[in-house]
Amino acid sequence: MILIIDFGSQYNQLIARRVREHHVYCQIEPPEISLKIIRDMKPEGIILSGGPASIYEKKSPRVDAGIFTLGIPVLGICYGLQFMVHALGGDVIAAAKREYGFAELQILSQDGIFTDIEKTTKCWMSHGDTIGKLPKGFKTTASTPNTPVAAAEDRKRRFYGLQFHPEVVHTPEGKKILGNFLFAVCRCQEKWTMKSFAREAIDEIHSQVGNGKIILGLSGGVDSSVAAVLLHRAIGNQLTCVFVDNGVLRQGEAEKVQDVFQKHFHMKLRFVRARKIFLDRLRGVENPEKKRKIIGRTFIDIFDEEAKKIKNVEYLAQGTLYPDIIESRSTFGGPSAVIKSHHNVGGLPKKMKLKLVEPLKHLFKDEVRLLGKELGLPEEMVWRQPFPGPGLAIRIIGEVTEKRLNILKKADFVLLDEIRAANLYGKLWQSFAVLLPIKSVGIMGDQRTYENILAIRAVTSDDAMTADWARIPHELLAKISNRIINEVRGVNRVVYDISSKPPSTIEWE
Ligand code: XMP
Q1: Can you spell out the DSSP letters for 47-97?
Q2: Residue-range domains of the chain with CATH
Q3: Ligand 1 pocket mutation pick from 318, 343, 499, 508 by most atoms within 8 angstroms of CB
Q4: What is the Å distance from ligand 1's center to 28 Cα?
Q5: pTM of the predicted model, to two decimals?
Q6: Which sequence positions are flagged as catalytic?
Q7: Dihedral angle over CA of 191, 195, 196, 199, nearest 10
């Protein structure tokens, strides 16, 4: 395994993903981690990440410099390099001006971590301070016009440093450079696959829960579905999944979940028909935040009640992913954790006094999809677009009524049908319909109509933090609009949302 010390760079998770793409397991840990824990982890290599601080700031993050005495290879990236140079007796110069963007990298020795890399290549810079004097034993291995020490090494002690960011796509040879560190320097082996993960995770679940009973809230989304299948593989009928049909799901979704998990995987599934109680509580509510709260709380009430019906449950399983873990504990995680907090159903484990099982907590989303495939989940579940917990309720602007729900469900179904037929479903982050609270005049046959307006939202995104409206071909938009107006009673006008995030959000409420 490779240990990544988190000095707060926005690219940290990318470093981890690049390492894992090389089939090497890695873990991101905060700089406060003790030398003893590091030693016990027995990492094959340590990567010191970049970060926004300057080494001369009083509060700049530091890891125990004892890591340089363990005989383990170290790669410092940007701030990580500066930390290493400073700790080993070199000089870091406070920069007058930040360097940001592409730079032409001249490689001075095409070996070590630059084995098989072109002599001149592009790299991505994002730093203030630079290296003034290298510590004893180090030599410069690459330069750019602005940065004389763009890379350095002490080959004897196996310490390497890069002033640029190998983890971002803007450094085309970055993945290969990281690969050289992993394989040529650290002698890692390509052992991290979803097959091996599944095997180990199943063992771990066994030893954690023994004969205990687990419940899991199944939503039909990728994370809870993969968690369910993995747990079921490990402990079979000790697992009970609870699926709550809250009435604001897309057409056919509840049936699909029953089909896959009950009929195909033969899991114990409690299918709770709760649409009435959700819709009753939502009656007359127009405020988006109120809708979210009502749905969140009602879910907890119902889940709690169902859990009580199962005797002797000790564990609650959740599909928590690695980014949630990193962001929630990171000192330098930025505002992202706060923005996302409303997405999770908080309060559940505390209320229920159950022990948590989080079998996916070491995985990134793309790894969860691969694991799902490995465990035999249908493709359409593995590649499903995200769907918000409050469901269609936050896509009906204004009050949620049975009638408006039916309109939206039908329109959404037509939209997704066409998006899939055009082979766009997997390329879009999300594509959905929104029912607006205003009516407009139209004409159908010889009749004047006064009906609802439906908005279509389709976005591209990598992580939902930013998003752009998708440039869907006009012909396809025409087809979608035509079909919706003809097939869905109650809609006589379709509009396309052309706003990006920020300043808009993906969902309308
Ligand atoms: P926004 O609208 O904030 O959405 O740009 C970003 C992403 O989060 C999803 N989303 C939610 N997911 N519960 C969820 O599980 C929620 O309450 C929730 N609100 C938004 C949204 O669909 C998009 O992918």
Answers
A1: EE---SS-TTSTT-----GGGGGS---EEEETHHHHHHHHHTT-EEEPPSS
A2: 2-185 (3.40.50.880), 194-382 (3.40.50.620), 401-496 (3.30.300.10)
A3: 343
A4: 26
A5: 0.88
A6: 78, 165, 167
A7: -170
Question: Per-residue pLDDT for the chain (509 aa), expressed as one digit of tens each?
Answer: 999 999 999 888 999 999 999 999 999 999 999 999 999 999 999 999 999 999 999 999 999 999 999 999 999 999 999 999 999 999 999 877 788 999 999 999 899 999 999 999 999 999 999 999 999 999 999 999 999 999 999 999 999 999 999 999 999 999 999 999 999 999 999 999 999 999 999 999 999 999 999 999 999 999 999 999 999 999 999 999 999 999 999 999 999 999 999 999 999 999 999 999 999 999 999 999 999 999 999 999 999 999 999 999 999 999 999 988 887 765 444 433 333 334 445 556 666 788 999 999 999 999 999 999 999 999 999 999 999 999 999 999 999 999 999 999 999 999 999 999 999 999 999 999 999 999 999 998 889 999 999 999 999 998 888 999 999 999 999 999 999 999 999 999 999 999 999 999 999 99
Q: Whose CA is nearest to atom 19 of ligand 1?
A: 388
User: Of the residues 365, 412, 507, which should be mutated to test ligand 1's pocket, given the most ligand atoms within 8 Å of the CB?
Assistant: 507
Give residues with Cβ within 8 angstroms of 120, minimum separation 6.
Answer: 104, 105, 106, 107
Beta carbons of 260 and 381 less than 8 angstroms apart: yes
Residue partners of 111: CB distance under 8 A and separation at least 6: none
Ligand 1 centroid from CA 392, angstroms = 12
- Which is nearest to 52 in space by CA: 148, 107, 126, 162? 126
Taking the C-alpha atoms of residue 292 and residue 308, their distance in angstroms, rounded to an integer, is 25
Q: Is residue 368 a contact partner of residue 360, using CB atoms and an 8 Å limit?
A: yes
Alpha carbon distance 245, 263 (integer Å): 18
